[in-house]
Amino acid sequence: MLTVTHVTYNSVQLNWQPAKDGAEVDQYWVYQENTLVAALNGDTTYYEVKELSPHSTYHFSLIAVNDDGSQSATKDVTVTTAANQDETLLFNRFDGTILDFDQHRILWKQTGDQVLWLFNRANQSQTMVHDATMAGAPYTIGAAKLSADGVVYSILGKAVNTRYWKDGADQRYWDGWEWGYLHEVNGNYAVFTFGAADVTTGGSRTLPSSDFENAYRFDLSYDGTVAYTDPTSESSLYLSLPDGTLTTYDPSSNYQTYSGALTDGKNMIYKVLKVDNGSDSMWSLRVRSTDQRITEETELALNPYAQDEFADPRKSYRISNGWIAYNKYNQDGDSWTLYVRSPEGEEKQASFLSGHVNIEQLGPDGTVAYSIQNQTYLYSAPKGKLIHTSTGPGTFHYIDGTWYRLDGNSLFAVQTDHSDTTAPVWTAENPLTVTDVTYMSAVLAWQPAADTEGVTLYRIYQNDTPIDTVTGSVYSYEVDGLTPSTAYKFTLEAEDAAGNKSANSPSVTVTTNAYAPVDSTAPVWPDGPVLTAADVTYNSVQLNWQPAADDMGVDSYEIYKDDSLLASVSGSVYSYTALGLFPETAYGFAVQAKDAAGNASLKSKVMSVTTSAYHPLPNPYMDLKVKPGFVQVGSTLDLVVKAEEAEDLYAFLADMKYSPQQVKLKEVWLSPSFGTEGKDAVFSRKLQDGRARLAGALLGPVPGRSGSLQLMTIRFQVLAKGPVVFTLDPNTEVADSQGQTRKLGTPVMLELVISDPDFDKDGKIGLSDLVLISRHSGTSEGQPGYDKAYDLNFDRMIDSQDVQYVAGKVAAGSA
């Protein structure tokens, strides 16, 4: 069997008995999460696993390997590490839940709620208290508690019954029809729905007007005293002593309802609803003696009725051995503070953080466990300081001088007597800064302080007076309620769980802004039409509006479509294009102006717009054009790809082929008429020898381009004379803003002739060449006499520019 001991926050010890299978064990293999972490000699019986994480669950396995290589069956165990270095795991069952425990025993229920076990902490043995599966019926274990020397538990099935178990057998039995459900056990006493009983003697007593549904309406002390209120009317307070004496307390004048009675056997604490004419109802928290020697009530706190909302009074106050822990509401700060009152009446503040405090346990020595903001603290009233802090889940319990943390199936002992005398230190050069300063507030931010045991809280001072505290995991704080144009000094102090406070605490000084008058005036629209429409298409419309006027300036405009907010733009923008509309559909648009203070104008008069009918995207008509210019071998040639009569052209893919023997592709760029690459459009190039695939698209929810426009320019270098053909492949396609695509369908070709002015091929450019081109001048493409060989600048006409170019060559004597 594989067991776990010495569980800390970062290590565990695995233990096992030597394997006995008739063969000699050569090695033991230890696995962590199916990963081999150790191979140990065959005479080893334990292994310590280190460098684990706090409050983390791990699965370990052990395999014995014999000298012949054979392996034993795998032994497995799962364990959760402690939350911090002050905790030690005492008991862990991953197949059940711990129900109760004391200094000697642990009562736990196996998964499935049918088997109840008692664990002996001294000798680590276990005894089965009850196995409901043996009854042959669908019975389960209900409530179960430890008594002083046994176990009291309930069996749930067709009926309810409660049993007292001791020395291996059931000793007594209570029928559910008569007694109801088991709610609480303390010492040798138990409280049921309809009464209380001494489980050892069987003696019982009725509790008039009880009928408890849960433990929220009563409290049971170790000596058998029961304090409770009537769960129906709550008009009276009852105190039942073990000898059967019953005392009833009725509200005095100005009081009408009792609630939440708790007792430690010596004193009783409870709430009474106080009603004043013309004032809100308040809960008055009061304490009185149970032995009648002191009949006067003492008021501890007066809390708002609506704020004190916990159903379980133990979350708000507790009593133990004369010590009282209770919450007080601070109406000015809308916050709660926990106080601890000694048996002599001395009161000490126990919590220093904002938020509602949940009390978990109060020890008989005046140490209280409470949680706030997902963290648990132990505060010692006699010592006047925090003695422990924990972020682990579960609840804290005090038993015979030791604090424990119970987390479902794991029980940890908490060390609180260690001595920590090292104060937190500030390691950053300027740890405290201030931002977001207004005329009445500022935000403080800081770098964490360092501490050997961890920082528990930060205390904020304003002009050397403490104003608030936050947990050690919070690094910012907003200060409000400041005065305009006033200088303030803020100081930050770090404190650990032992109460050590940082020295040389950082400070910062800030002056608030001047007072800004309250803006309560809304923007107004000018007279006349405010909202107009333009560029209405089948799926979009451009909205334009007149600027609104505001004494502090317009901050934003909100655009509404059919009474629903469509968009918001800044106060300097006066147009918006609504996209994603449906064809042939009527829409109502309106605009509203707002200033920085949130004041809103009246909405403009609703303008109705009907979108146009949708026409499918026609097959694209694309063209290739060469930029005019004289070209010769070695010079560059610019080719333009154009879209003619485009409608909502949002993206394109051009597939171009050319003669690589004649020209070499040098560069490609997007035309501004379509978009600017990297700003409002994207452009991609895939270049091969003799082929180029070029893709472009617009960015954002904008309409596509329409009309005749250039898409891109492609620059080639001329390599040789002769004809060169450029072709747009039929797979070239375009897409509209709705994602519909259309292909070119037929190729688009452009044929050019790269030539020089040696038209007569005599090896030189002379007068005969000048005469030949002059005789073709005045003709254009498509006219008789036009020959593209004489169109030297590719402008589709032979004119004086071409003739002048040849004349220049003749005069220069070009060969």
Automatic annotation (TrEMBL):
Q: Which residues form the Fibronectin type-III domain?
A: 1-84, 428-515, 526-614
Which keywords does this chain's UniProt record carry?
Repeat
Q: Name one GO biological process term.
A: polysaccharide catabolic process
Entries under SUPFAM superfamilies matching the protein? Fibronectin type III, Type I dockerin domain
Say if the entry is tagged with keyword Protease: no
SMART domains per record: FN3
PANTHER family per the UniProt record, alphabetical: FIBRONECTIN TYPE-III DOMAIN-CONTAINING PROTEIN, TENASCIN
The protein in question is named ChiA12
Q: Which organism is it from?
A: Paenibacillus mucilaginosus (strain KNP414)
Give the classification, highest ranks. Bacteria, Bacillati, Bacillota, Bacilli, Bacillales
Gene name, Swiss-Prot/TrEMBL: chiA12
